[in-house]
Design a protein that fits this description.
Layout: E1 2-8, H1 16-32, E2 37-39, H2 53-57, H3 66-78, E3 81-89, E4 95-103, E5 106-112, E6 133-136, E7 139-143, H4 152-160, E8 165-169, H5 184-196, E9 199-203, E10 219-221, E11 227-230, E12 235-241, E13 250-252, E14 255-256
Parallel strand pairs: 1-2, 2-3, 7-8, 8-9
Antiparallel strand pairs: 1-12, 3-4, 4-5, 6-7, 9-10, 10-11, 13-14
Length: 271
């Protein structure tokens, strides 16, 4: 079993130092709880509700920034994997909504969000490369960010690349929903897990930020698509997952979620 933690936090908009301390404390807390994989929210280093690209650029950091190196230092010391969102300043001078994957080997990968949500189009440049799937000490971990989760073509491709766990740093804006229902995004995470036999760990956020309220929908889904842990409150959500089971795509002896695919008939998906 692999212990996975999602930290549901409240970053401070535009305050790099405060968010550095917040993220490091959250990583350490998860380490103390025995977590082997730790997922932090989208844009945890910067906050989300920027008014312009110029404002975002003031707290954008490069992948070799000391803040991310500190995540990697803790990951190396504790032998854990850390995935968290950050506002990235690219070598091209553009600003990206990105996520970093760090472990004992350092910052292993950076992923730039492909599907920008709403006003993100006015702030960030979309990424241009497929999500990474990284071989780690606990298995193969893929990464997408928030709205990316709502594109099954993308999450299927991550599963086909071998991901046993999909880490999803996210900021889910609060929408009305019927009493007693989970957030729709959590339901999508469950469906993603079920159709791919892949675990999914979504680290959401909380806190009113420039008039925007957030869902607080941190959810961890097992490889069968069932919720293993969830919370609408601040702090850590943690679950023990059998990631090895994600390598077996059979539902029954004669039903296989990968083996039964008919990709020759799916051309409309990419047209």
């Amino acid at each position: 079993m692999t212990r996975v933690a999602c930290q549901q936090l409240t970053p401070a908009i535009g305050d790099l130092e405060a968010n550095r301390a917040l993220s490091l404390a959250a990583i350490e807390e998860a380490v103390d709880a025995g977590a082997e994989v730790i997922v932090l929210p989208e844009l945890i280093t910067s906050g989300y509700m920027f008014e312009s690209t110029e404002e975002a650029a003031q707290v954008a950091i490069a992948p070799d920034h000391e803040l991310l190196r500190e995540w990697a230092d803790v990951a190396a010391r504790a032998s854990v994997v850390v995935i968290g969102g950050f506002c990235e300043r690219g070598d091209d001078g553009l600003v990206y909504n990105s996520a970093a994957v760090a472990d004992a080997a350092g910052v292993r990968a950076v992923y730039r969000k492909l599907h920008l949500w709403d006003n993100e189009h006015a702030i960030f440049t979309p990424g241009g490369e497929a999500p990474p799937v990284i071989e780690t000490s606990v298995g193969r971990i893929g990464v997408v960010i928030c709205y990316d989760l709502e594109f099954p073509e993308l999450t299927r491709s991550v599963a086909l690349a071998g991901a046993q766990l999909l880490a999803v740093p996210t900021n889910w804006p609060l929408f009305p929903r019927p009493d007693g229902e989970r957030p729709s995004e959590a339901t999508i995470a469950m469906a993603t897990g079920r159709i791919n036999k892949m675990a999914v760990a979504c680290a959401d956020r909380l806190g009113l930020e420039r008039g925007q309220d957030w869902t607080g929908g941190a959810t961890i889904v097992d490889p069968d698509g069932w919720v293993a842990a969830e919370s609408r409150a601040p702090g850590m959500v943690i679950a023990d997952l059998d990631l090895q089971s994600a390598l077996d795509k059979r539902l029954t002896d004669r039903a296989d979620v990968f083996g039964d695919r008919r990709p020759e008939l799916y051309g409309a998906v990419t047209r």
